[in-house]
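Severity: low
Component: inverse-folding endpoint
Summary: output formatting inconsistent between runs
Steps to reproduce: submit the following structure tokens with default settings.
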């Protein structure tokens, strides 16, 4: 599949209608706990044409992916103070990609209040990942908690007996991850961290080892692919990600971080200061013009 348009050479805040869609394969190398809230469930959906399939909601992929991006930029010494839920800086590459609001810091003490008053829309758009094959046998694991000192179980009433339900290993999922208004640097950051995605689901300290691969991409002025489409019929003419010749991810992080002050919206105080400055300049120009006219009149 050939593309008549390319990546943007710059980064701007306002959307410009260009979408890089990555077709992503996730293969479970181990059983995975993919659930909503209840411990004794796995997430499936019964599609009219696809039948019953295992699914991974985008929020579970996005949360892990964002943490990987933030982890990488902290390792490079970039905005190490930015973290989820309590302190989104809205000034780093990760926040530019995934978005956020200044309200995320509303409960912080005054000395840690954000310096920003704007919100950022997410540039990364996602969808539910769908298993390539219909649902197969679901695995059940039952275990009992044992007191380390007495080597006795605490009993069912105290919650020591529990059951874990998992999606079986070797299950393959397919999904589409979209980057809005892609530049080489932003694409490099996204691609590198998708390739670093090695665990998914709950209790990933012992479950959910995965292999993530990018099958290819489509670049267009609209979203032409969906997870449902590729799960139903995998496109054979996707462009290869290597064809983009992306810069090194470390260089990409550094460049985006350097550009952030010029990319982000100006603060209200700065805008008001600029307006006052322009108004004063206009008033000065008008005064000089009046003086000039008065001089000519004499």
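Observed output (run 2 of 3):
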């Amino acid at each position: 599949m050939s593309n008549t348009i390319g990546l943007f050479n710059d980064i701007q805040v306002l959307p410009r209608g260009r979408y890089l869609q990555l077709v992503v394969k996730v293969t479970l190398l181990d059983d995975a706990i993919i659930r909503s809230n209840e411990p004794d469930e796995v997430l499936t959906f019964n599609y009219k044409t696809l039948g019953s399939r295992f699914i991974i909601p985008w929020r579970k992929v996005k949360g892990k992916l964002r943490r990987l991006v933030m982890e990488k930029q902290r390792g490079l010494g970039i905005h190490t103070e930015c973290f989820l839920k309590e302190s989104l800086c809205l000034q780093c590459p990760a926040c530019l990609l995934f978005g956020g609001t200044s309200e995320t810091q509303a409960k912080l003490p005054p000395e840690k209040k954000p310096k920003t008053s704007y919100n950022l829309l997410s540039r990364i758009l996602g969808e539910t990942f769908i298993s390539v094959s219909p649902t197969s046998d679901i695995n059940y694991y039952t275990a009992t908690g044992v007191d380390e000192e007495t080597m006795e179980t605490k009993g069912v009433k105290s919650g020591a007996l529990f059951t874990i339900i998992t999606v079986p290993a070797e299950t393959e999922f397919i999904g589409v991850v979209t980057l809005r208004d892609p530049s080489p640097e932003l694409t490099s950051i996204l691609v590198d961290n998708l390739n670093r995605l090695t665990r998914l689901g709950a209790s990933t300290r012992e479950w959910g080892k995965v292999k993530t691969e990018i099958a290819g991409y489509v670049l267009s002025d609209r979203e032409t692919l969906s997870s449902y489409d590729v799960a139903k019929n995998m496109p054979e003419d996707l462009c290869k990600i290597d064809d983009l010749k992306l810069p090194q991810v470390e260089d990409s992080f550094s460049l985006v971080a350097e550009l952030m002050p010029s990319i982000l919206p100006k603060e209200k105080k700065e805008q008001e200061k600029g307006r006052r400055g322009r108004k004063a300049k206009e008033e000065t120009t008008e005064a000089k013009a009046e003086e000039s006219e008065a001089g000519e009149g004499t």
